[in-house]
Write a structure and sequence with these properties.
It contains seven helices and 15 strands. By secondary structure, the chain is of the alpha/beta class. The chain folds into two domains: 206 residues, FAD/NAD(P)-binding domain (3-Layer(bba) Sandwich), CATH 3.50.50.60; 103 residues, FAD/NAD(P)-binding domain, CATH 3.50.50.60. Strands 1, 2, 3, 4, 5, 6 and 15 form a seven-stranded mixed β-sheet that branches. A five-stranded parallel β-sheet has the order 7-14-8-9-10, covered by helices on one side. Strands 11-12-13 form a three-stranded antiparallel β-sheet, with no helix packed on it. Helix 1 packs parallel to helix 7 and helix 4 crosses helix 5. The two termini are 28 Å apart. The model has no long low-confidence stretch (mean pLDDT 94).
């Protein structure tokens, strides 16, 4: 007999955790299905990353987040969310990747490799960090090309190219340069992103100005070879020696998975899921979206701090539906 819950939550990040807390408070049965680790995206952030948000704005479940300084580190965030999950004793299954979700007679059947689960409601809180935006150029599949960055140590003494202009690219360029890498940035626009962390932007601009970090603006990587990178610049094609390419070009929702659930998207270039802004219910009845995927490709619009209320909105909607069902 299949295990049945009121709610299946797909994704064990802050949004999924917040939804589970609200479900537990409302005495609804639930399970979080996480294909990786707890707050998997945060775990895969750079080792020395500092959040832009304050610890206060990262709090969920009315659990205080105390950090050494106003803006917490990745390590502090991991410890905080572990503490939240343990404090609420949340029902979460790790390394449980959802294979498919089908709806029959108003009930969802969620297929895992190990088993299938039945649920009346589904909350999709998958984030976007596991789907990088590709460069789509020759050589991108070479082992030296990385779409994720963890630590500067492997790049000491290496010729590296950092692709991008936003927070991640600037952080990576500075940290690797400080540890002894020969860094070249390739920026599609005329300038770095104006909303780069205020304590980072002047530093990276000064390093570029003095020539410590080389930068090609209004440029893009044309192709990648084993020992060189070819860059298309306003002055023509430039070829430079290269050991690693760190493509910090951002991430996007896993659209193929979301479409397999039946979720529809708007026709704009932002490709937001179609959902009710008050309840977060999408076009599939009784299926909800939570967290940053609500912004579609506009990934700089939503963060943990402005999606913390998604869980409460969703559970409120689910409770109202269950109340209507009881009345009928």
């Amino acid at each position: 007999m299949l295990k049945e819950y009121d709610i299946v939550i797909i994704g064990g990040g802050p949004s999924g955790i917040a939804a589970a807390i609200e479900a537990k408070k409302s005495k609804l049965s639930y399970v979080i299905l996480e294909k990786g680790l707890l707050v998997n995206s945060i775990y895969n952030f750079p080792t020395n990353m500092t959040f832009f948000s304050t610890s206060l704005k990262l709090e969920i479940g009315e659990t205080p987040f105390i950090s050494h300084v106003e803006k917490p580190t990745r390590k502090e965030a991991l410890e905080y969310y572990r503490r939240v999950v343990n404090s609420y004793n949340l029902n979460i299954k790790f390394r449980s990747e959802v294979q498919s979700v089908t709806k029959k007679n108003g009930t969802f059947e969620v297929a895992l490799k190990q088993q299938n689960i039945i649920a009346k409601f589904v909350i999709v809180a998958t984030g976007y960090y596991d789907t990088p935006r590709k460069l789509n150029i020759p050589g991108e599949d070479l082992p030296k090309v990385k779409h994720y960055y963890d630590d500067a140590h492997p790049y000491i003494g290496m010729n590296i190219v950092v692709v991008g202009a936003a927070n991640s690219a600037c952080d990576v360029a500075l940290e690797t340069w400080q540890k002894g890498a020969n860094v070249t940035m390739v920026v599609r626009g005329e300038n770095l992103y104006s909303k780069v962390k205020y304590w980072i932007l002047p530093n990276i601009e000064n390093r570029i100005k003095e020539g410590s970090i080389k930068a090609y603006f209004s440029s893009q990587v044309d192709s990648i070879e084993s020992n060189v990178v070819n860059i298309k610049t306003p002055n023509g094609l430039v070829t430079i020696d290269n050991d690693y390419v760190l493509a910090m070009t951002g991430y996007k929702p896993n659209y193929s998975f979301l479409k397999s659930l039946g979720i529809e998207f708007d026709i704009t270039s932002v490709k937001r899921p179609i959902y009710n802004e008050e309840t977060l219910e999408c076009n599939v009845p009784n299926m909800y979206i939570a967290g940053v995927i609500a912004a579609g490709l506009n990934t700089s619009e939503l963060f943990i701090e402005n999606t913390r209320d998604h869980g409460a909105k969703i559970i409120s909607s689910i409770l109202s539906k269950k109340e209507i069902t009881r009345m009928l």
